[in-house]
Amino acid sequence: MSQVAPRVLIVSRRSVRKNKFVDFVGEYHLDLIVGYGVAPVIVPRVSGMHALLESFEPIHGVLLCEGEDIDPSLYGTTPTTSDLSADELEEIRRAHASDTAIDHEKDAIELRLAKLCIDRGIPILGICRGSQVLNISSGGTLYRDLEKELERKCKEEDKVAHIDYENYDGHRHAVRVVENTPLHSWFRESLEDGKTEILVNSYHHQGVKRLAERFVAMAFSRDGLVEGFYDPDACSPEEGKFIVGLQFHPERMRQCRTDKFDYPGCPLVYQDFVNAVKAYQNKTSNSIDPKLGLKLGQGVQMKRRIISRIFSMARQTYVARADKTPSREDNFEAGAEFLQPNTTLSLQEEKRLKQVGATVRNASSYMERLKIGKEREMVAKNLMEKMSIGQLTELLSCYHIMAQICSEVLEKKLTIC
């Protein structure tokens, strides 16, 4: 039986068609990754999806694509801290009406995926907005509008038009490619004879302002804007490592009315990404029984231990309150006694049970277990109310993964039996 193709998650973008919202992904992205042997899995950018991402496991790669402007509050910019006036912001909204409508669901999903990839070492490629998401996820910031913020700092000869609505797909501007970077290796054939620049397409009015510390720039436009970056500690496709962000669209850099690429290096970006995805799949699938299909990364296991410790503390709190003798087990594991479900009865049901208690064997013991279960539930609830949204999300994610593993192992054992 042939090996199952690796899975690359791609978050959809919302549009309006026939007076209703529809989700879509550009075919140029899909054509390339499918052509190189990867199965694209489209994640709909709908409400609540950010909390269900573990349902898409196994994840072998993530491709973050174009979309609307990212919520500025996610990179520390608010109306009171912005360098732009209210009039300037309104002018930006009028000039870029199709991009300035914030899509909070897409923001939440893609930021979560970016952090997941970095945490677990999953290959990730960010294109255009996707590169901005990748930068923000690691602590970087953005210019809210290049013309208003960056251009005013530039000399006239260094100014760059980063978007041209009159020549949308045909517009190009030069970027300087940094030597000894992945981008330089992809476009090496076009950078011979001392050349340092290539012409790239450009569809954006925002861009990287402060590059996150983990990243290294691979290309700059003449106004100094970072047009590409990578993580040098996580960029080795043959080892399943790939974290790259490009502000331009290599998949759309094609000659007019043809499918021929501007440069031979354009598709190589996706080819190396897919190579990393395949290597990551092989690396993770070889580390466990392939039938289990899921491997906890080191980061996830660390979070699991932290969460286990939180519940251990909660258990000790409960034991102290109940004046019970604590367990001798030092390492309280997730899924142990404290977390066993105990369905509690309503007051009415409890009264009815008490009424027949004399005829029910061990009724008092049963009622005591119910009360203990209720007390444990309250201790856990009080503890969770003190946790942050991020901690609660990680808690839910961790136990979702553990439940999936438990289900798969149980199914395997039942099959053997």
From TrEMBL:
CDD domains attached to this UniProt entry: GATase1_2
Top-level division of the source organism's lineage: Eukaryota
GO cellular component labels: cytosol
Listed GO MF terms: hydrolase activity, acting on carbon-nitrogen (but not peptide) bonds, in linear amides
InterPro entries: Class_I_gatase-like (IPR029062), Peptidase_C26 (IPR011697), PuuD-like (IPR044668)
PANTHER family given in the database record: GLUTAMINE AMIDOTRANSFERASE PB2B2.05-RELATED
Name of the protein: Uncharacterized protein LOC109716892 isoform X2
Gene name of this polypeptide: LOC109716892
